[in-house]
Structure to design on (195 residues):
């Protein structure tokens, strides 16, 4: 049987990616897991090591790079972020689809050595994601400006993804992504329990 789907979700900070992904994971009819990335960024209030991220220091992260532990990694907003192979490969072999919440640089690396994936770019109009970033209140002004600058560049790359979705209505976005994932399972011979 073929391996389960790899679903890459990218989009600027504040676009609602985390909420969309949480809703996908809560749908018991889709056998999915979220790959927990490693990062050198400090945890935000409420973030739990091993659940939201593996919070590593730079030495440990760089040792992981040297040891080939990463499927991809990138520097985003001054910190390292990376996908651990161990978070992905063995789960796909066990028929669980894996979601990667990664930036555009990470996606470019994954697609170089993987031709079997679904890539989705989520975005909202700029004034909306700026407001969301500010409401989150977890960054200072300089960090917010850095994220906005990155976001503008990322949006110019949206056409590189198989699907671009404007996250205007959460329910609609979630149901469109669910359908895209079901299509992926169907193409692979129906290992999703609801099909
Ligand atoms: P945040 O600091 O807001 O959690 O994440 C910042 C950015 O890093 C987001 O765009 C997120 O998609 C990206 N990111 C999170 N994990 C990874 C990863 O493992 N690899 C890459 N390349 N980007 C990641």
């Amino acid at each position: 049987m073929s391996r389960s789907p790899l679903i890459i979700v990218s989009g600027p900070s504040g676009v609602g990616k985390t909420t969309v992904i949480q809703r996908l994971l809560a749908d018991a009819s889709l056998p999915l897991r979220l790959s927990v990335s490693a990062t050198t960024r400090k945890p935000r209030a409420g973030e739990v090591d091993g659940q939201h991220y593996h919070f590593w220091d730079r030495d440990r992260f760089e040792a992981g790079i040297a040891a080939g532990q990463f499927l991809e990694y990138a520097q985003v907003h001054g910190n390292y972020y990376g996908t651990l192979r161990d978070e992905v490969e063995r789960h796909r072999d066990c028929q669980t689809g894996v979601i990667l919440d990664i930036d555009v640089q990470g996606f470019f690396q994954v697609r170089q050595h993987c031709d079997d994936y679904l890539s989705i770019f989520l975005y909202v109009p700029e004034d909306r994601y700026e407001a969301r970033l500010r409401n989150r209140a977890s960054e200072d002004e300089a960090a917010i400006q850095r994220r906005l600058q990155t976001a503008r560049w990322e949006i110019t790359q949206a056409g590189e993804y198989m699907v671009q979705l404007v996250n205007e209505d959460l329910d609609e976005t979630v149901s469109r992504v669910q359908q895209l994932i079901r299509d992926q399972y169907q193409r692979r011979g129906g290992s999703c329990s609801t099909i």
About this structure: The two ends are 16 Å apart (CA to CA). Helices lie at 17-26, 58-66, 89-93, 104-112, 126-136, 141-156, 170-187. Strands lie at 6-10, 32-34, 38-39, 54-55, 70-76, 79-84, 97-101, 118-123, 163-166. The chain has one domain: 6-187.
